[in-house]
Write a structure and sequence with these properties.
There is one protein chain. The chain is 52% helix and 15% strand. The chain is built from eleven helices and seven strands. A hairpin with a 2-residue loop joins strand 2 and strand 3.
C-alpha cells in the first residue's frame, strides 16, 4: 500500500503525542518512511510524500518530516540507523538550551538541555546538534531509552501543533554516537535541500485547506467565493511550480549550494500558504472552523508550523543575497 492510500484509511484526528507516535511507528513498520533522498533523481517524489502527510495532519507531518530528514542525514554522512527506529531531528539552538559533547572511547557523552524536541516522549532515537570542547557543532545520534536522558514536560504550551509534544530534553552523561565531522550538519548540501522539504509540508496543508473552498464553489458558485478561489489557485500554482522547479534543480545539481534556492522557495510557499488561509477563511466564514474538525485543526496548526520560517529575518537574508547577485537573477 502506498502512503496516500494508507493515510486515506486513517482518520486525521490525533488526540495527543502518543497517538502521533503510534501512527509514525506504523508508517515505519509499513516501510512508508523510506523516501527518495534529496538529489537522488526523485526529489519531487520526496516532496510529494511530505505534502501528502502535511495535508493529512501537520502534527504527524512534523514527526514524519523530522524522522525522514534524520534518516537522510545519517545516510548522507555515512551512518546506519537502527532498523525499525523512529527518529527526531533536533537542531534548534536557543541560547538558554545547549548540549555539550565529550569523548568517551569510541562513543561520546552528552550533557545539557535541548529545546523544541518534537515527539521526544514517543521516539526511540534522536539526531541532534551538540557542541564540542572547541565550540564546534557536532551531530550526534542518541537512543532515548537510556539512563541520562530525561524527557521533561517543560517548554511546550502550544494549542496549534500541540500534539507534537515539542518539550525540552535533559542529558546527563548519556551515551551517543558522533555522526560525521564537526560542522557537517550545516556544510552538507542536504541542509538547504531539507529546508525546501519543510516548505512542501506547508504546501500540503495549504492545498488541503484550499480544497474546502474548491468543493464549496463546485456546489454553489457565488461570485465572491469564486474570486477567492481564483486567488487561492494562483497562490498554490505558484508554490507548486516553485517546488517542482526546486526538485528538478536539486536533482540536476545535487552537490550545489541550495541556499538561495531554498530561501526563495520557502518565501514563496510561506506567502502562498498565508494567502490561502486568508482567502479561504474570508470565503467560507466561520462554518468550517466550527464544524469541520480536520479543516479547523489544519488552520490552527499551519500558522505555528510556518513559524519555522523567521519571517522578515529570512526575507532580509534573501534580500541581502539578491543585492549581491548579478542582474541575471530575474532573467526569464
Amino acid at each position: 500500500m502506498d502512503l496516500q492510500h494508507y493515510l486515506a484509511r486513517r482518520p486525521p484526528d490525533y488526540a495527543d503525542t502518543a497517538a502521533l507516535g503510534h501512527c509514525l511507528r506504523a508508517l515505519v513498520e509499513a516501510g512508508l518512511d523510506q523516501l527518495p533522498l534529496p538529489g537522488s533523481g526523485l526529489t519531487l517524489e520526496r516532496f510529494q510524500r511530505l505534502a501528502e502527510v502535511g495535508g493529512h495532519d501537520l502534527g504527524l507531518c512534523k514527526l514524519y518530516e523530522g524522522h525522514t530528514d534524520a534518516l537522510a542525514i545519517i545516510e548522507q554522512l555515512g551512518g546506519t540507523p537502527t532498523p525499525g527506529s523512529t527518529w527526531g531531528m533536533w537542531a534548534a539552538e536557543p541560547p538558554q538550551a545547549r548540549v555539550h559533547v565529550r569523548p568517551a572511547g569510541h562513543m561520546v557523552r552528552l550533557d545539557g538541555r535541548k529545546a523544541w524536541c518534537s515527539g521526544a516522549a514517543v521516539l526511540s532515537h534522536a539526531l541532534l546538534t551538540a557542541w564540542d570542547a572547541e565550540d564546534r557543532q557536532q551531530l550526534v545520534a542518541v537512543a532515548l531509552d537510556q539512563p541520562g536522558v530525561t524527557i521533561t514536560d517543560q517548554g511546550w504550551q502550544a494549542v496549534g501543533m500541540g500534539a507534537t509534544g515539542s518539550v525540552e530534553v535533559l542529558f546527563d552523561g548519556a551515551e551517543a554516537q558522533a555522526i560525521g565531522e564537526p560542522g557537517d550538519y550545516l556544510k552538507r548540501p542536504g541542509f538547504w535541500q531539507g529546508g525546501i522539504g519543510i516548505a512542501a509540508c506547508w504546501y500540503g496543508a495549504a492545498r488541503q485547506i484550499a480544497e474546502a473552498l474548491r468543493q464549496h464553489c463546485a456546489q454553489r458558485q457565488e461570485p465572491h467565493a469564486l474570486a477567492h478561489l481564483g486567488a487561492v489557485d494562483a497562490a498554490l500554482y505558484a508554490a507548486a511550480n516553485v517546488l517542482r522547479f526546486s526538485a528538478l534543480h536539486i536533482d540536476a545539481h545535487p552537490e550545489a549550494d541550495a541556499r538561495l534556492l531554498a530561501q526563495r522557495a520557502r518565501a514563496v510557499v510561506e506567502q502562498s500558504a498565508e494567502q490561502v488561509m486568508r482567502d479561504v477563511g474570508r470565503a467560507l466564514g466561520a462554518g468550517p472552523f466550527c464544524k469541520d474538525r480536520h479543516f479547523a485543526r489544519l488552520n490552527a496548526d499551519l500558522p505555528v508550523f510556518l513559524r519555522q520560517s523567521h519571517a522578515e529575518r529570512d526575507l532580509a537574508a534573501l534580500g541581502q543575497a539578491l543585492a549581491e547577485y548579478p542582474e541575471e537573477a530575474w532573467t526569464l
